[in-house]
Design goal:
Layout lengths: L3 E4 L4 E4 L8 E5 L10 H20 L3 E5 L6 H10 L3 H18 L15 H13 L3 E4 L2 E4 L15 H8 L13 E6 L14 E3 L1 H13 L3 E7 L3 H16 L4 E7 L2 E3 L2 E2 L10 H4 L5 H9 L7 E3 L1 H17 L5 H4 L11 H8 L4 H17 L3 H17 L7 H11 L4 H16 L3 H13 L2 E6 L2 E6 L2
Parallel strand pairs: 3-4, 3-9, 9-10, 11-13
Antiparallel strand pairs: 1-2, 5-6, 6-7, 7-8, 11-12, 14-15
Helix pairs in contact: 4-6, 6-7, 9-10, 10-13, 10-17, 12-13, 13-14, 16-17
Length: about 475
């Protein structure tokens, strides 16, 4: 099966046709480093990490570029509010982001460019747009002439009336037209700035990604990704800048992950439901969070709830329980054998990252392992499950470490244990054996071993 990807630009899912099958190139918008990442920021991290892993399994070489935006008005505002230096804020927040990526099991991108390391390229691109008449200087600013780019709105499907309606809320006096956007803006101390032909200043947000992607991937590359909130105006403006500058398409496929809500509500400070990933590190194993973030197909909305967390935890417990008999030596190498990835899982992921289907297949493998009669067949299925789940970023520690490690995270009292046992007994009496097994696995993940005896359920702590 060939890789099928949904293209936001065309609104269709089609076979992926790379520019050069020997070398796939992908750019994904990374974080603006002004605050610690929240759970919504984690979704594109794991989605495009999984895409990177898939492409590596199918093609001989993949270059994955994910940027760090360390020049932005949000950073400047945070420095003003806290009295901290911009350097301190961007350095600390970048470290938080990298810790988040490790926690979520995301491999490092091939290249991770920063805006501050690409100012000459940004200035040169702006100059080219000015020379071509797509941009103009006014009062220390350089702005993009949106009306000069005939295809503006093709990605977001917004027409000129919609664009004007959104732009007329407050029109800056230096704009020729309300919809024009900033490429370069003047700076005064302590705001960071650089000397340029347009005066001392700093770049606008959109031009940064156009310049960095073209430097590291060329004028046209295969895939551009990001969150759905970036379609307009960020990605729309990137297309306008890059296409006008290079007289060539920017990217052939545009991919966007869906929104993430928390308990049915949009995440916001005013509601008080912002979940910082750093806080989750104290209570949840990162694999659980990764599973939850991938549990819905990436283009669909995802609601982060306690039920989702519990289901993700239980799912991983089932996988680990099926592999408990593997020796510790088999868990040690973390490298992936691409020839031993389950073909059903691989086909599901090649179908526009159909993670629900891939997860369903992992559970089918668990069932096959649990019902296998022949020891050799069971072992073969176990190695396929381990390798395939690791390919997807899971099962990164041994089963022994997984269940023992749960003790330090999920302390549980005897009264809580008894509540679980009562629920399990009720489920067994109702012949709801799936729920009974799930409760057993949940207790196992909390370091509690259940044993069914003729006189009832007995339990003990794992260590």
């Amino acid at each position: 099966m060939t890789v099928q990807l949904y293209n936001t630009r065309t609104r269709t899912k089609t076979a992926f046709s790379p520019i050069d099958p020997a070398h796939i190139q992908m750019y994904v918008c990374g974080p603006t480093v002004y605050a610690p990442p929240h759970i919504g920021n984690g979704r594109p991290v794991v989605v495009f990490d999984l895409l990177f892993r898939l492409l590596q399994a199918v093609y001989p070489k993949v270059t994955y570029v994910r940027n760090i935006t360390d020049v932005d008005d949000k950073i400047n505002q945070r420095a003003l509010e806290t009295g901290r230096s911009i350097q301190d804020i961007t350095t600390e927040t970048t470290e938080y982001f990298h810790e988040t990526c490790v926690y979520l099991g995301a491999v490092s991108p091939t290249v991770e460019p920063r805006v501050t390391g690409h100012i000459p390229e940004i200035i040169q691109m702006i100059q080219t747009l000015v020379d071509k008449g797509f941009a103009y200087e006014k009062e220390g600013h350089v702005l993009y002439r949106v009306h000069r780019f005939a295809d503006y709105g093709q990605l977001s499907r917004k027409n000129q009336d919609e664009l004007l309606a959104g732009a007329r809320v407050e029109v800056a006096p230096y704009k020729e037209n309300a919809e024009d956007f900033v490429l370069w803006k003047p700076s005064t101390a302590p705001t960071p700035g650089w000397e340029s032909p347009f005066g001392y200043g700093r770049p606008g947000w959109h031009i940064e990604c156009s310049a960095m992607s073209s430097k590291h991937l060329g004028e046209t590359f295969d895939i551009h990704g990001g969150g759905i909130d970036l379609v307009f105006p960020h990605h729309e403006n990137e297309i306008a800048q890059s296409t006008a500058c290079h007289d060539a398409p920017m990217a052939n496929v545009w991919m966007h992950n869906g929104h993430l809500s928390v308990n049915g509500q949009k995440m916001s400070k005013s509601v008080g439901n912002v979940i910082i990933i750093q806080d989750l590190m104290h209570t949840l194993n990162g694999q659980i969070v990764r599973w939850g973030l991938l549990s819905s197909q990436y283009r669909q909305p995802l609601d982060w709830t306690q039920e989702l967390v519990q289901n993700s935890h239980a799912a991983l417990n089932r996988l680990y329980t099926a592999l408990e008999t593997l020796s510790d030596e088999l868990w040690t190498p973390l490298s992936i054998d691409y020839q031993n990835i389950d073909t059903v899982v691989l086909s599901a992921l090649q179908d526009d990252l159909n993670t629900p289907a891939a997860f369903a297949r992992l559970h089918e493998l668990v069932h096959a392992i649990n019902t296998a009669v022949n020891a050799q067949d069971k072992f073969q299925l176990q190695t396929i499950l381990l390798n395939t789940a690791r390919f997807m970023g899971f099962l990164t520690v041994s089963a022994n470490e997984w269940f023992r490690g749960a003790l330090s995270i999920d302390a549980i009292s005897e009264s809580e244990i008894q509540d679980y046992l009562d629920q399990r007994q009720a489920a067994k009496l109702a012949k709801d054996f799936k729920t009974a097994d799930d409760i057993r696995d949940t207790l196992r993940s909390k370091g509690v071993i259940i044993k069914d005896t003729p006189t009832g359920q007995e339990w003990q702590r794992a260590n």
